[in-house]
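Input.
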Amino acid sequence: MNNTLCCFTVCLGLICGSTLGLPYMQEAGFEQPLLITSAGQSAEVRLASVLAKRAGLPFTLAPAAGPEDLNQAATLVLSLGASLKGLGAAGLDVRQEKERVSALVAAAGAKKIPVICLHLGGEARRGQLSDDFISTFLPYARLAIVVKSGNQDGLFTRLCQRHGIPLIEVQRVVDALEPLKGVFQ
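Output.
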């Protein structure tokens, strides 16, 4: 199925309140448990864990996860969005964070662990620093779920189309619950 048709099918299924597009997503190989981590150390990584908890998905939250944290994971969830305050609190600079996430996605690839990228911060979590993390790590995803206001300039749309990644846009963070839950059922 081509990416444009897939995105249309997934979005149509969500708009219509059906699971029309979700069987395709199940074929992407998403399994439980999840390892949820940040790519940029923004606070939205905690929102990702709240969504997983509400969806009833087993997960480990490790905002600064390394390759060793993948040992018990079947799916890696990256929360995309950079925060200088978050980086400082984690004792990381931008270079160290990129190296950490690069090593993590490389290890996930070697173990054939699929990646889901979330961008839950909307427009407020965009900017050059976040865009750099998004552009660097979104191409590793098999699925992206994005709060629509964070995609007003079409960055996620362009990257997902270029790399053949299904994109699900939601109006609010809470609206990401059903699509996230649905890809694991």
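Residues 124 and 150 are 7 Å apart (CA to CA).
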